[in-house]
């Protein structure tokens, strides 16, 4: 998402769902949209990160998780992603802490929460409720 672009066009920053999605553990990332129109610096992506950190009071770990998500979502080849976030990110869903600065406990929490959500969906679709 590009909250700065959204803010300029139709959705004020405070109502943007990005933070809610991130807090719920969705794999979201910041991006730019028409940088010449919506950004004021030569580094539009850094501008998105800086504003998000200020508005939503993100910690350095939050920012690192967003950057990690960007790598995961990117169109880079798997080998490039392995270089930047960890050799087994595809197989295990776990990245290397020394590369991403995202603590293992956070990754495990995200994974556990996702598994619980899958269980609820599975129960609901199989008539478990």
Automatic annotation (TrEMBL):
What is the top EC class of this enzyme, as a single word?
Answer: hydrolase
Q: Which gene encodes it?
A: AMD1_2
Say yes or no: keyword Transferase present.
Answer: no
What's in the GO CC field? cytosol
**Which InterPro entries did the record assign?**
A/AMP_deam_AS, AMPD, Metal_Hydrolase
Q: What is this protein called?
A: AMP deaminase
Cofactor dependency: Zn(2+)
Biological process terms from the Gene Ontology for this record are:
AMP metabolic process; IMP salvage
Q: List keywords of the entry alphabetically.
A: Hydrolase, Metal-binding, Zinc
């Amino acid at each position: 998402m590009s909250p700065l672009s959204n803010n300029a066009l139709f959705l004020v920053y405070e109502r943007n769902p990005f933070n809610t999605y991130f807090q719920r553990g969705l794999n979201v990332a910041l991006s730019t949209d028409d940088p010449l129109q919506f950004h004021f610096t030569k580094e539009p992506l850094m501008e998105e990160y800086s504003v998000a950190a200020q508005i939503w009071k993100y910690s350095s770990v939050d920012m690192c998780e967003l950057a990690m998500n960007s790598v995961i979502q990117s169109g880079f080849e798997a080998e490039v992603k392995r270089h930047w976030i960890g050799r087994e990110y595809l197989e295990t869903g776990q990245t290397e802490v020394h590369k991403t600065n995202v603590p293992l406990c956070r990754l495990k929490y995200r994974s556990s929460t996702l598994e619980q959500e899958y269980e609820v969906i599975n129960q609901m679709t199989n008539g478990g409720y």
